[in-house]
Amino acid sequence: MSHQEQLLPNGTSDCDLWRRIHKGINMAFKGEDHLDSLPLPVQRMHLIQVDSVQRWMEDLKLMTDCECMCILQSKPISAEKDEQNELILSSQYSTSDNLQLLLKRAWIISTELTKIAQKLEKNRWQRVHSMTVRVNCHVRSMINEYNAFTRSSSEEMNQLEKLLIDKCSEFTAFTERCIQIEDEQMLRSMKSCINETLTTVAQYFGQLIELVLTHEAQNLLRQIESSDSVYITESAINSLFSLTQEGTHLCRIIAKEGGVVALFKICRQDYFRCLYPQTLRTLASICCVEEGMHQLEKVDGILCLADILTDNTHSEATHAEAAAVIAQITSPHLTFTQHLSSFLENMEEIVTALVKLCQEASSGEVFLLASAALANITFFDTMACEMLLQLNAMKILLAACSDKHIVDTPYSRDQVVTILANMSVLDQCASEIIQGNGVQLLMEMLFERSSSGNSAEVAACERVQQKSAVTLARLSRDPEVADAAVKLSCIPRLIKLCRSPTERNNSDSVLVACLAALRRLAVMSPEGLEDSDFQQLVKPRLVDSFLLCTNMEESFV
Q: Where is the Protein inscuteable homologue LGN-binding domain (predicted)?
């Protein structure tokens, strides 16, 4: 923690207290943004920029003045109106909406508990008490809201709710006594008890949220497994997908409760063909966690995906979502793909189907998902590059890049240049690049810049620049490719990227790749460099040139 550790009266440091509080809270919230943990193509480019004022307006209805509302929320004005309100609540919102409300309320509570720990550390007793009252109110509201839309709760859940409410009341009573005490010595002696109570509240709260989310996941999966209605099954799958978007912890809960098994059952029934796209989309989200991957392997999920991809009777949307699952499970960012032994058995069929999907893609998003799956597979197994070469994938990808309606974003170009970079280790790749005008494409990618300034898009542009330079460096061992690159003025562009930090968005990875490409081209065409460029960017050790370029100040004259 950034704050300085100070020992509390009971010998527990503030850092220890924070860790104990967060341990309880993190049982329900892992502090992770699920979309960010997925590979870029699986995100469907849904990079939502939430305005802070808009977020405040959304949360405002939940952030009521709890001190004033506590009595009103605890006591209904009349039994008749209370029943009417319950009816409205249960009928107006879907299960997904109610869960979103629950998660928002839980997020507020977890934030308030963290703030209480901060105020307690500074001995701001008045603030600690007012925030404790607010947490008490939010906890009661959350429990009441959840019980209003759920019709079945376990005995364990009821006991945990009672424990949490009782402990919150005890916590409020403690802090209320503290604001009436002026003796500093007595306050210090009570602080350890408050710390223990706060930690217990956080633990009970985390356990309750974990139990509630598990209960809701079980209910949704029961609907999916038992219903013959397309409408009910679709609604349950959509609600399950909404849960997966709340973080990897929820994906683990769903996987442990059999979510992958239930969804693949849907994908094996022709009756539910119309639900394949949303079912596969949900599977892609769940398979970002190791538990989901293990379940996929157990139910022969790879074989099912291969069957879907190779079945021409399925819609393009279904093929695209199957490609998204492949992209997810082969992501090089994941460390638990080694057990996918069945993938190698079906790789040729899958790669062939994905190349065909790239060639016939009717939209940029379909191409993005298919090319992302191919890009990840080239990392996953080296045989894939040879397969792609035999399938004329190089020609297909280069042709797609000339269609601005298909390859329309830096994200798509990132996938294409990843495949080119991985294939460029093959000697036969050079002739394919020359024939498909690939050197011109690589040159254009060196100029990749973000039009929106969005951080994710900027990062994608950096990757495109880096990988295009890497591909040029690898391919320039072939004299024909090197000659084409020199004629297209690649050397001046590489020099500009090395010397101008803004051209490469201050990216060190782009700089290293450009220095490597420049040195390879300089060997083939030394006359293309001025003496100063040669002395600074080519002749020294790579690390020395790197340090020179990173310390360079741009001239604005």
A: 48-92
CA distances from 363 to 106, 276, 316, 409 (A): 39, 19, 10, 12
| Whole-angstrom distance, CA of residue 134 vs CA of residue 467 | 52
Phi, psi of 489 (to 5 degrees): 65, 40
When computed from its CA atoms, the radius of gyration of the chain, rounded to whole angstroms, is 29
CA distance 417 to 462: 12
Q: Share the mean pLDDT of the chain.
A: 82
Helix (H) or strand (E) holding 326: helix 316-329
d(CA 472, CA 444): 12
What is 512-555 written as a DSSP string? HHHHHHHHHHHHH-GGGS-HHHIIIIISS-HHHHHHHHHTPPPP
Look at residue 524 in the predicted model and tell me its pLDDT. Answer: 79
- Find the angle CA(441)-CA(447)-CA(452) to the nearest 5 degrees: 115
Q: How confident is the model at residue 176 (pLDDT cuts 50, 70, 90)?
A: confident
Q: 509 by DSSP, 3-state: which?
A: helix
Per-residue pLDDT reduced to its tens digit, 203-225: 999 999 999 989 989 999 999 99
Mean of the pLDDT values across residues 4-8?
A: 35
Of 105 and 349, the one with more pLDDT? 349
Which residues, in sequence order, are bridge partners of residue 13?
7
Amino acid found at 125: W
Q: What is the pLDDT of residues 10-60, one digit of tens each?
A: 444 444 444 444 444 454 444 344 333 334 443 444 433 456 676 666 666
**Alpha-carbon gap, residue 215 to 209, rounded angstroms:** 10
Sign of CA dihedral 412, 415, 419, 424: positive
- Burial of residue 160 (CB within 10 Å: 0-12, 13-18, 19+) is buried
Residue 362 tokens read as 């009717």
Q: Is 13 helix (H, G, I), strand (E, B) or coil?
A: strand
- For 461, the enclosing helix (H) or strand (E) is helix 455-475
- pLDDT of residue 77 exceeding 90, the answer is no
User: What's residue 95's pLDDT?
Assistant: 63
In total, the chain counts a number of residues equal to 557
The answer to whether the beta carbons of residues 317 and 275 sit under 8 Å apart is no
Give CA–CA dist 63/506, Å, rounded: 41
Using one digit for the tens of pLDDT, what is the confidence trace for 381-423?
788 999 999 999 999 999 999 998 999 899 999 999 999 999 9
Residue 339 binned pLDDT confidence (cut-offs 50, 70, 90): low
Using CA atoms, how far apart are residues 94 and 100, in angstroms rounded to an integer? 10
Terminal-to-terminal C-alpha distance of the chain: 45
Amino acid at 408: D
